[in-house]
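Forgive a beginner's question, but would it be possible to get any protein sequence you like and the tokens describing how it folds?
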Amino acid sequence: MYFGLREGFWPHAKIPSDSLDTFDYSDRPLSEEASAFIREQRNKEIATDRFSPAFGPDLLPGMFSSPVGAVPKPHSSGLRLITDQSAGPHAPNSFIPRDAAAVRYDNMHDFGKLLHKVHSQHGRPPTYLFKSDCSEAFRRIPMHVLWQIRQVVTVDGE
């Protein structure tokens, strides 16, 4: 954890040395509404230093531009930005071994079991409960610079 927070996390990816080709899968057709939304999201990501400004239309060796899109948010009229990290034979996700990628997130059932266990052990529920804001957790986790430079988001050819 210490090195991940200081130097960035590495997702157990095993990248073969022959994967230095560039792959650009960003040319999927989008509606004008989706394109406008993606531009707006790109600008927000640049403003918060999570995206760098555009460096031109050409990818550098080893870079991969994943397709982006916009899908409707559930129970809302808004859109949500999506990035397909699994598209194509050299997608970022294809370098992560399946056995290293298994993640199970806590849910309300797990929380209920934990509350029941605490109540059984201590004869009362916990005195305090708090909820952390994880709204952008995957955007806030620092990724290792060598993992970052492989991934490009192309918007309007830049």
Summary: The chain has a mean pLDDT of 84. Residues 58 and 158 are 8 Å apart (CA to CA).
